[in-house]
Amino acid sequence: MYISKKKLFYTISGRLRKYLHHYDRETKLALRYEDLLHYSDAYPYFDKKGKDTLWESVIYDQHAQEELKTGLAQIYALLKTDGDMSVMEHVFVSRIDYCTFGNSSPFRIQVVNELNDNYDYFYVKRADASRVYGLELEHILSPSRINYLVDGDTLIEEHIAGIPGDVFIKEYLERPSSNKVRIAKEFVKFNERCFMRLLGDMRSYNYVIDVTPDFEDEQYRVRPIDFDQQSYEGRKRMYLPQFFKENNQMVELVQQLLKPETIKQYQNEERTLMFRRLRAARYRLKDLVDCMRQDTVSTPEKIEELRLELAAHHRSEEFMACRNMGDLVRLHLKTVITRAPGEGKLRLGHV
Predict the structure, then answer these.
(1) Is residue 239 domain-resident?
(2) For 77-109, what is each residue's pLDDT tens digit?
(3) Domain count, the chain
(4) 0.70 cut: is pTM over it?
C-alpha cells in the first residue's frame, strides 16, 4: 500500500496556538529544539542485542552539555510535576539520542533518578501542526491521556511506554502465556479507533502494546506513538491498520479467533465508548475541530480523494461539501459515532 514518503510539514497556526494556550499545552521552556542541533559528535546507538536502532547518541562540548542537561532537567520537571524543581535534586540527564529518520527528527532524552537508578524518557521535536492535532485527538477520544508541551516551534512529548508492535508480533505473540483472543480483540478496537479519528500510517512500528498482568491473565492495550499522519493521506485504507502488511499476523489472528458478529460487537463497543468520551469533552473537541477546520494539514488532492472515498463508504453526499480535513474529521466522527447502538444522536453543532 502506497504512503507518502515525506509528509509535508505544517506550522502551528495562530488559532491553534490560542487553543494550546487555553488548555495549558503551551508554556515557556528552558531551551528550544534548535539548541540541541549543535552537537559535536555522534555514534550509533545499539540495543541490548547489538542491533542498530537507527538512533545516534550525540555529544556536545563540555560547557554546552552542562547547560543543555540543566535545561532538559527543568523541562522534565515541568512535564512531570508542573514545574516543581525539587525533583532536580536527584534527577539528571544521562543520554541524548537523535533520530534522523521520520518527519519530526526527534531527540530522545534519557533521565535517571540517582536514588534508585530508575530511568525515564521524553522527546524534543519540531512542532508540526498535524502531530499536535493527532496528540490532542488521542488525548480526548482514546482511553489514554497524553502529556505534551509546546513552545514556539518546539514540541515536548512524554514517553509512551509499551512493547513496540513489530517486536511484540515477532517475540511475544506466540508465547504460551499470551492470550491471543484478548490480543485480537484489542487490535479490532485499535483499528476502529484509528479509523474513527482518521489517524493514518499505523504500521507495526508506529504503535506499542501495553501489557498489564491481571489476576488470572494478561490485559492488552494498543497505543499509537506516531501522530504525524493525522488526517493527511487521501486513501481511506491509510486509516485502517488492518491493511498494512506489517500487521498481517495480527489480522490473521483476528480472522482465526473472532467470528464476524464478535468483531462487529467489539467495533460497536469502541464506538459507544468514544461517544461517551466525546460527550464528556465535547466543548474541548469542538474548539479543536474548529481550529482544524480553519487550518491546512493536507494537500487539495488528498482532501478531494478522501472526500470521495468517505462519501462512498458512508453513502452520504454530505461529505462532498467538506472543504478541508477538519470538515472531514468532524463529519466522519459525527456519522460513525451516531450509529453506535444504544446511544443518542449527537447534534452536529456540538462538534
Answers:
(1) yes
(2) 999 988 777 777 888 999 999 998 767 789 999
(3) 2
(4) yes
